[in-house]
Design goal:
This protein is of the alpha+beta class. Helix content is about 25%, strand content about 20%. The N and C termini lie far apart (about 75 Å). InterPro entries: F-box-like_dom_sf, F-box_dom, Tubby-like_C, Tubby_C, Tubby_C_CS.
């Protein structure tokens, strides 16, 4: 008898105070963000710590206070109704930060919020950090843009159309730092812009060019130059994806040809009834688990292969052209679209093979768009796009 009464009281109060204000008040009371996390979230809304620690590691003293506070004692039916309402009305950032605020109140709020929030494949939204490692939606791509900072050799991935259209409402997703070495170039990817340590919880992944004398697990050893995502440099090379750029005899006068072997995604994922690996939580066991990827060890699980969509030659413009549907406005050799390269035996329809899974292109000085969809995640799409920034003498 108490639960319906509590729900009625909440509905009466919700008429007096907007739901958004109510949730923001709860978010302010949680007090779980550290100073650095607040600094990183000024442009993108709230940030929530990985699932490996229910709350921020620096907020241990506030954990007990929050868990035993008045918000943790709400009836489960009332709590579920609150979170469902917040999740239904906040469909984009920065409003999506209110959903994160609900998960930041205490452990019980966090658990119900995780049950209510669906994966990007199911709802098309990015909410928690783990969403960056989950496949995107199947039909409508998630539109992002990358801002390059040449002075600091950093690349920032934002969710949004462009800086001009989104302004300060952009959501910062990932940040990559370019590290030049004597024999190769590395990109370290982090959840924040001021912490690129591989021992940190903010570490998301790494894109590197193996040295020429380093053995690389490859399905095509004739490729001239290769960028591979390496999970841990402290262990034998473990590759979850390989991005290859083939020799271009026309150099800058011809388009690049690229191929992506996605060792963590089976080719059957894009077939009828197929599914792609979807990590649900961060773990700290090792770098392989933290990335949420597993290589395909079974011979029956053939890895998914992506190839760039071949451009057509425009006689009037005298250049190679691709239809980016208005998302790319500046001609560049870096522009590309990736589609699935399936074999006839893999039972993948022709329309599915023609769908653009990832497109990347230039729209201004140091501004590039990146749109991705299932079965790629934001992290995978970002890593593939980063490979296009590195100079490739065999391609140009």
């Amino acid at each position: 008898m108490l639960y319906p009464l509590s729900l009625a009281v909440f509905r009466q109060k919700s008429r007096e105070m907007p739901l958004t204000s109510f949730v923001r008040e709860i978010g302010n009371m949680s007090k779980k963000f550290t100073k650095n996390e607040k600094h990183e979230c000024r442009r993108g809304g709230a940030y929530i710590a990985p699932d490996s620690s229910p709350l921020s590691s620096t907020a241990g003293s506030s954990t007990a206070l929050t868990e035993h506070g008045r918000w943790a004692n709400l009836p489960s039916e009332l709590l579920l109704d609150i979170i469902q309402r917040v999740e239904a009305r906040e469909t984009c950032w920065p409003g999506r930060g209110d959903v994160v605020a609900c998960a930041s109140v205490c452990r019980s709020w966090r658990q119900i919020t995780k049950e209510v929030v669906k994966t990007p494949e199911q709802c098309g939204f990015l909410t928690f950090p783990i969403s960056l490692k989950q496949p995107g939606p199947r039909d409508t791509p998630i539109e992002c843009f990358i801002q390059r900072e040449k002075e600091t050799s950093t690349y920032r991935l934002y969710m949004g159309l462009s800086p001009a259209l989104s302004g300060n409402l952009n959501k910062l997703l990932l940040v990559a730092k370019k590290v030049r070495r004597a024999t190769c170039t590395d990109f370290v990817i982090s959840l924040v812009g001021n912490d690129f340590s591989r021992s940190s919880n903010n570490y998301a992944g790494k894109l590197n060019q193996p040295p020429k004398d380093s053995p690389v697990r490859s399905t095509n050893r004739s490729l001239q130059k290769t960028h591979s995502r390496q999970v841990s440099p402290r262990k034998p090379m473990f590759i979850t994806a390989k991005i290859s750029y083939e020799l271009n005899v026309l150099r800058t006068r011809g388009p690049r040809r690229m191929k992506c072997d996605m060792y963590s995604i089976p080719a059957s994922a894009i077939g009828q009834g197929g599914t792609a690996p979807t990590p649900t939580a961060f773990t700290n066991c090792n770098d392989e688990a933290r990335l949420g990827f597993k290589t395909l060890k079974s011979a029956q699980n053939v890895p998914l292969v992506l190839r760039n969509k071949a451009p057509r030659w425009h006689e009037q413009l005298q250049c190679w052209c691709l239809n980016f549907k208005g998302r790319v406005t500046v001609a560049s050799v870096k522009n590309f679209q990736l589609v699935a390269a399936a074999e006839p035996s893999q039972n993948v329809t022709v329309p599915e093979q023609e769908k653009v899974i990832l497109q990347f292109g230039k729209i201004g000085k140091d501004i590039f768009t990146m749109d991705y969809r299932y079965p790629l995640s934001a992290l995978q799409a970002f890593a593939i796009s980063l490979s296009s920034f590195d100079t490739k003498p065999v391609c140009e």
